[in-house]
Amino acid sequence: MFKREELIPSAEEILERLPLPAPLKAVKAERDRLAAEVIRGETDKLLLIVGPCSAHESKPVLDYVERLGKLNERVKEKIVLVPRIYTNKPRTKGVGYKGMFTQPDPRCREDILKGILTIRQLHIDAIGASGLSAADEMLYPENYAYVEDLLTYIAIGARSSENQMHRLVASGIELPVGIKNPMSGSIPVLLNSIYAAQSGGQVFKYQNWQVRTTGNELAHAVLRGAVDGYGNDIPNFHYETVMKVIEGYSKTGLKHPAIVIDANHSNSGKQFKQQIRIVEEVLGNRLYDKDFKQYVKGFMIESFIEEGNQKEDVVYGKSITDPCLGWADTERLVLDIAEKV
After folding, report:
1. Which residues have a Cβ under 8 Å from the Cβ of 262 and sit 6 or more positions away?
2. Does domain 11-340 match CATH 3.30.1490.20?
3. Would you say residue 195 has pLDDT above 90?
4. Which string of DSSP letters, residue by residue, matches 93-127?
5. How far is CA 280 from each of CA 49, 208, 263, 287, rounded to the nearest angstrom?
6. Taking 90 as the threshold, does the pLDDT of residue 111 lie above it?
7. How confident is the model over 75-95, as pLDDT tens digits?
8. Which residues contact 146 (CB under 8 A, 6 or more apart)?
9. Domain boundaries, the chain
10. What is the structure's pLDDT at 44?
11. DSSP 273
């Protein structure tokens, strides 16, 4: 049974209560344009989604994003930087810390209304401090409406890519939506998900409305590695694997075929330092093969101020979920990427 605890206001009420200021709307619109240009192939810039595995406290996240804003000034001719501010955390076994949306303070009990207001303020402050609008994972499609005016990039995770509601909501979004391959690694399933997200005329119930979508031509593939039946990680960032994805893409007729490589998760086996090697290998393959370069348009990198992770929030700027690169390695890697684009 469900025990009702608190009535949550509608998304419209929340957006009216805590709106994105007009000057920051203009900043976000420009960042949206730049990210969309990469997916459409209208620029040779790379899209780089980089930041903590999950945002668990506002102050270090803002600190980190301000650093990204300064770094952006050095690489903006080659890279479109999008901070990763993930406020919903998927759990393999369904239990544990589920992100700021649900639990704005990981040391306290769940408080969703406070969480919604906290993450909206975090996103607003981050845009103001850095000039960069962020990416987040659409873990729960119903929650997207509470942040839809704040994000430049939306990710759909491996556990969600086969879910019908995720596909339907993605088809109504007008921003880049990166759909990860499912945990099985199935590329046909991934391409079917992208097809559904790009298809217009989808009719369903969303936020108490019957809606009809126009289709999202910016939906694209994210390769994050797979997990076999025994729990072993299987990377899919290598040249041969990516070329098979490109071959599958070429048979679909999908618009703006694009691939983003997730350098962590099953591609790295969550060995966070391996992200550097993975990015370097993929950059080399882009130089080697023009088709590879045409399709592979960006990276996802997990990074925070301090490297690694911790079980509890003791060390400032250190992940309490998956381990991340530290800032020094991140800065070097981003500058290296800019040199090799």
Report:
1. 180, 222, 223, 224, 225, 299, 300
2. no
3. yes
4. TS-S---TTT-SSTTS---HHHHHHHHHHHHHHHH
5. 16, 46, 10, 11
6. yes
7. 999 999 999 999 988 877 777
8. 11, 14, 15, 116, 120
9. 11-340
10. 96
11. T
